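re: ur msg from earlier - yeah i can do the pyridoxal-5'-phosphate complex, just paste it... oh wait u already did. ok heres what im feeding in:
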Amino acid sequence: MNNIEKDTVTRKENREKQFTKTAFDPFDTRHHGAIQVPIYQNSLFAFDSYDQFDQAMSELLNHHVYSRGNNPTVQYLEQKLAELEEAESAKCFASGMAAISSAILSVVGHGDHIICVHQAYGPTREFLGSYLSRFGVETTFIDGRSIEQWSGAVRPNTKLLYLESPTTSFFGLQDLRMCAELARSIGALTIVDNSWATPCFQNPLTFGIDLVVHSITKYIGGHSDCVGGVVLGSKALIERIGYTEYMLLGGIMTPQTAALVSKGLRTLPLRMQRHEDSGLQVAEYIGRQDFVSRVNHPGLPSHPQYELGLRQMSGSSSLFSFVSDVPVERWKEWAGRLRYFKIGVSWGGFESLVTVNRIERENDDGLEASLIRLYVGMENPKDLIADLEQSWSHL
Ligand code: PLP
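and the outut:
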């Protein structure tokens, strides 16, 4: 077997093992064998003796004392996600942004410096670039596609390398292993937003990354019915976040949300398989249209970092974009004529979505281009392609 064949087998095995992890739970006497975790709808947990109470208070996160700390339904989901992401530990939050801001705050303080990929999710950039500067934390934004850009931005006070791979508008990748090695060599930590690939297709901790964050709102939740986030990493780092940002800022996940997400999680590997197949079919079709100048999809061999993607991901999801010189106004009218693609933010649910944005052209001629972001849901990809096909004539 040559190296490419071996890599393909490993990628396939990595994906297959997630099916058992999501479907199987060991028998749990605490829940009377309940197949879905019960919703513990309570704020506090009472004790029979003061000795037990004192013991629990001394280790709040390892006992059930108060739900702004450790609720059994939320804890079940945390353990499940940790297993999928190959993490020692996890903490679930009220939103992806609560998870992201808490993870960042747990690493930096006044006078520190952060390096961040400049196409990271907008509110993350705003938190780093504007909000944190009020507290004396500076951020340098870089393209991030080559390791030289990261090492060139390092300062003596750099404490954090913040990655989002792939980024969710232009879908550029960062080399996870090299960034983790660079961070370690300068005594900094790394955080990766892994919402696009999900734990099914990429496990950044296995490349030496310190913390992984997800917007659970996206594929993990999978049904556009809840907002949530998670931070995953070593027991020590997650415990630190648990006792500080989690408990002090209080952006916790509710037990109802945790139960909904746990239910959705059962089908995550299956859904991702479908999203990958359909996403690639639609992206390939888009790439054949003559008014499309570029398709940004890391799973297409035409993507400039396709090889890196194969090394660090075992699959690709179904959010991608394409660039066109047709003006934005015409694309906006076009979007309104689509039947199956609804106009809307977010992604990761069952329904296909579209958004349109104005961007500068890459050749620096001062002219504008359009960036169309498509999210391919669970519909039959043939129907989605037929919907697109009928729409071009009016473009
Ligand atoms: N990360 C990425 C890549 C996102 O696209 C989003 C939301 O769109 C977030 C984080 C934030 O997640 P949430 O909306 O759950 O706070």
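cool cool. The mean pLDDT is 96. ping me if u need the other ligands too
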